[in-house]
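[Primary structure, fold]
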Amino acid sequence: MKRVKRLAAAVLAAGIISASPAWAAEVTISPALPGKIGSTVQDPAGVILNQPQKMALEKVCQILPELKDLSVRQRHDYEGEPFWRLSLTDSPQGLIPGIDNISAHLTFDKEKGELTALEIQNPKWASEEIPPPVLAKEKAEEFARRLLGDRIKYYQPAADMGYGGGSTRDSKGNRIVWASAAVQFNRLVNGIPLLNSGFQVSVDAAGRVTGYHKTDSDNIEFTKFPDPSRAVNKEAAEKNYAGLVKMKLNYLAHQPVKQLTFGKGRNETRPVLIYSPSFQGPLDALTGQFPGDFRGNLPQTEKITLIGEGKRFIVNTPEEAVKLIADEFGLDLSGMKSAGAEIREELPASGNRVKEYYWRAEADPGPDGKPVKMMRFAHLTTLADTGQLVGFNLRDDSGAGREGAFSQETARKTAVQFLQKFLPVGEAQFEIWVPSANEDWIPAWVDKGKLEANYSRPPQMYFHFNLTHQGVPVTDRYYSVTVDLLTGKIVSFYDGSGSPAVILPNSKGIVSADMAKAEYLRRHPLRLTYIWPEYFGQKAPAPYLVYLPASGTGWEYIDAFSGKTVAPEEILFEQPTQ
């Protein structure tokens, strides 16, 4: 599932750091033994900070004392950029920091000297565990309060949290993993949160702040925000929303039993039958209706029977990969150079390691002799142990802006014919997503001329095939195929059916869809929110005031047998199977 990308923002307390554009005299920050910020020993690297920059750094060090024992390794302050950046480490001067060294990266606003981004990686903090929500929010709010001072009142922590992390590896294969919870703080306007505007604080399992990211602007045009007193009442909005929501049955072969942890292979899972809503979009709070500038519905679907031929595609070398791409996809990679191959960690759902082959083309020179920013690259993925093909993708933007020559029906036949060659021998039932007429929908406020110049893609049609059990789609057992409407050829394929086989619950004895809908609406009450949409860098003329359902944990689901919401920590009683 695609997840909405969380954005973030924050500022330092007013008056603590100079906002004067005329920076004061420069001061050398000199690391020693292996160097502490503010040390007076001469730094051989000669990293120079002026006085306001030093004050900005020292302010952050007061909040995060662990940074005081690090040395300043690099400063980036390029002309024309609105930010300056610092890299800190505990590695001795002259040595390249390794996997066992602490590193920190900070970004500051050049005009105001305020922290806009922070990332800390300490090998002693490495952990694949995530913090309890209460601890994460407590530590994130404490950090934010010290950073913003009184201005914390203009932000509100979001009810839900995100989880993620990072890792590093040395040349010997040693790997360190950091996991964290990300607490989002949204900017308040008229006492109402503005989504995608605020800041995010990352906290590890021990409650330490490991990251911070600011993205909003201080120059908010408050006069453009709709007056919340004009919103329809919540009861009327809930009634309209209930009329839009339809509940759909889905199987999940590998639903997590416990909260997922970053960096581990397979997590404990179980097969479940669930209800999920077909509509999760916003309601215009001024009209109580679905706004035309948004898409909130799941794609239309239909059932289809395919006859598998059982053909297997095996690749063990780059040369075999190029040949398979030519023979089975009809694509020519000439003009593209091999960028090597890489074996990656096991896929979480299947436990299989994968090997990926890469190719890319050099940018062609434009009229002025400078390279044209035209994407053209490809990669092919196999199971590392067997060489069996599981994915392929070609991106070639040379056809951007042109009108497709092949119809949706022709593209669909092409996708089906290819997939049938790949499927196991025999009949199989699928649910296919039907591309809608507005698949390439663009909001009315978008300048399409600018869009074509910078973000246009060749016309393509994407098909998604879910395997079914007892007529119900199995969400995590699927295939996808993308057809180029200029050439009629397949440019993308992925086999998402490789997870271990499990016995799925019998679909008999489930609760009604209406009962599941009532549970969904109860657990996800509507909340008044501002949204200021963007589309590939273009911003809507004004924000929207909308009603949105409250977010869940991200992994919770409505059990089709009990009609109740289940979180990953909870384990359902066994259901009869067939």
Notes: The two ends are 28 Å apart (CA to CA).
